[in-house]
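Quick one, T. Sequence first:
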Amino acid sequence: MTNIEMTVTARTYREIQAEIKDLEAQANALKQTMIREMDAQGVEEMTAGEYTIRWNLYESNRLDSAKLKADHSALYAAYTKRTTSTRFQVA
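Structure tokens:
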């Protein structure tokens, strides 16, 4: 791939990423509209045509690693493992 081709590819990539960000913002605005309507109706679930829309609380348990590290640093160190990942960036 030539430098010009790489430049064009990088530019196209950045443009598509910007479009994705815009579409995510639009989707979030639509989501907030539906949530506000459900809150106004006082419901956690509603049917709209072929769609079932749910908005409800749920609980999950997560490990507080910062507290574990502060309170039991040796235990934290014993169960911590280093991982390696890759990162792709076009700046």
